[in-house]
Write a structure and sequence with these properties.
Strand order of the largest sheet: 4-5-7-6
Distance between the termini: 23 Å
Number of helices: 7
Order of helices and strands: HEEHHHEEEHEEHEEEH
Number of strands: 10
Structural class: alpha+beta
Largest sheet: 4 strands, antiparallel
Length: 240
């Protein structure tokens, strides 16, 4: 005889998926947009979330694009603006592609893009660049080539050697997805029922509260199983 089993309505959630993997979507009129975060940072934030919860506004240095945009996709806003967004749960980030200038001799050069913003499809980006060149909306660009293999390598050829690389890239950032806006709207279901916009400190606190509830429920469930087995063993054991 074994203890009856029932389906679980409380997921374990041992990993902060909301903060690490992010989410994008809308349901019932409530929109949500959470940028992904580096897993190590998300895990480090969990045990230390009490430091955030104790402060009305955490210091900007403690909330580096917890968003795990790598340093190679640098946010274009100040650290204070990033801290404000994570404190209130609403805001946005502007990220740019990573690029460098590659000298080809005799005063000529190429611009090589090695990383594109989050959620930007490389194929669609190349098509858009080709369209703008054909429509003569990029007078500083002569050609664009996709030389990607395992790593991203988009090559942009300037129209003349006298073209300033910074000026050329600014025009590309303005007209293409090489600069993108990533929204932050941490609208989540608190305790699985109530939709609320949470800041980083509140989100971490809710996750730790959920983890504590899961551990208590699991411990109580195992304790009941042990008590049930002891009761069954006592019933079938012969008297001494």
């Amino acid at each position: 005889m074994t203890a009856p089993r029932t389906s679980r309505w409380c997921c374990r959630g041992a990993f902060p998926n909301l903060l690490a993997n992010g989410s994008q979507g809308i349901a019932g009129g409530d929109g949500d947009g959470d940028p992904a975060a580096q897993r190590r940072r998300a895990l480090r934030r969990g045990p230390s979330s009490h430091r955030y919860a104790e402060r009305e506004k955490p210091h900007a240095a403690e909330i580096r694009v917890g968003s795990g945009f790598s340093d190679r996709r640098r946010d274009r806003r100040s650290a204070e603006a990033i801290a404000e967004a994570y404190t209130t749960g609403r805001g946005s980030f502007r990220v740019r592609a990573r690029w460098h200038k590659e000298d080809t001799g005799r005063g000529t050069y190429l611009i090589v893009i090695t990383e594109v913003p989050w959620l930007v499809q490389k194929g669609r980006l190349v098509e858009r660049l080709a369209e703008l060149i054909n429509e003569k909306k990029l007078p500083l660009v002569a050609d664009v080539r996709d030389e990607s293999a395992e790593d991203i390598r988009l090559v942009i050829e300037p129209r003349a050697r006298t073209v300033d690389a910074e000026l050329l890239m600014e025009s590309l950032f303005k007209l293409t997805e090489l600069e993108s806006r990533i929204p932050l709207n941490m609208n989540v279901l608190v305790k699985g029922r109530i939709p609320r916009v949470l800041g980083l400190a509140e989100a971490l606190t809710e996750w730790l509260t959920h983890r504590r509830e899961v551990l208590l429920r699991r411990s109580n469930f195992r304790l009941k199983q042990i008590e049930h087995r002891l009761e069954c063993s006592a019933a079938i054991s012969p008297p001494i």
